[in-house]
Amino acid sequence: MYSSSEVAGLVAAIAARQKGLRVTVADGSHPPIDKACGEGLMPDSIAAAARIGIHLPEHAGYRFRGIRFHGEGRQVEADFPNGHGLAFRRTVLHAELAAQAADAGVELRWNTPVMGIEEIKSRWIVGADGLSSRVRRWAGLDRFARKSVRFAYRRHYAVKPWTEFVEIYWGDACQIYVTPVAPAEVTLALISHSPDLRLNLALHKFPILQARLEGAAATGRERGATTANARLKAVTRGNVALIGDASGSVDAITGEGLCLAFHQAAALAEAMAAGDLCTYAKKHRQFARRPSIMADLMLTMDRWTWVRRRALSVFSAMPAGFARILALHVNTL
What we know:
- It is a single chain.
- With 333 residues, the chain is α/β, with parallel strands linked by helices.
- It has one domain (2-329): FAD/NAD(P)-binding domain, CATH 3.50.50.60.
- It has helices spanning 7-18, 43-51, 90-103, 134-138, 199-202, 207-212, 257-274, 278-303, 305-317, 319-329; strands at 2-4, 24-26, 40-41, 62-64, 66-71, 74-79, 85-87, 107-109, 125-127, 144-158, 165-171, 174-182, 185-192, 217-232, 236-237, 240-242, 248-249.
- The chain has an 8-stranded mixed β-sheet, covered by helices on one side.
- Helix 1 (7-18) packs parallel to helix 3 (90-103).
- The radius of gyration is 19 Å and the shape is globular.
- It starts with a strand and ends with a helix.
């Protein structure tokens, strides 16, 4: 197996080694590689990682207990029904996965860009090179059944977390979600349809959050990325399979990107070991159904003010209903 790397590539490599496959990972960069993301893993992500032999060390992360929504003058929260989430700085997570891949016997070729799949001599080729995947294009898999794109910007702030929840602040045409990542640091991630809307321009829309950050120094630079709610017509062709964002994705507001990659990696490793990628393609579609439903719900709240207002009103009046939706979101119902 030959895999192009992002986090999903390392995850796929570790899962494949669990099945006894020889694995080489190539990447044009060298870890740890930073990326704009919310940096929180929900309980279903942690459990899915454990099933393919990935241990996420709690001492390197920061616990959170559930999700809290703010918007339309209302607040509603719910604990995860089982377990807790863990937040990791993206660089910490990438370095940890690279170390675990090396320990598992994966051959890691850093600073080694792949210029085309025709140059790869391998039984299986796995494209894990993100939303703008070149492997997907080279394999002729760059055909979308649907795709909508938004823009995300992330920055860290030196402030003691004021909450044990990941908080999502809902505004007109944008959201900011806040993840506690350390005893004295939080992550802010802004998502909107505008590539020009940055955190410093958006914060005034959220006075409660702005007050929380008063006097807090920004740590590191602001990073940007695109996030897509996208489904491909196919994720395999011949001996090529796609995984992670290269294989389609759900909007980052769901927080389900890595969880999907863990599930996909387990199914892909099993399919490669059995010599048949058809089973992976089928399971890939199944894994995407629940996160896609949640993404559609949350994007509808983003798009229509009256839907958002009504949803937050109902959640506030019926917190048990919000808890049930969260349980469904983390796949415990």
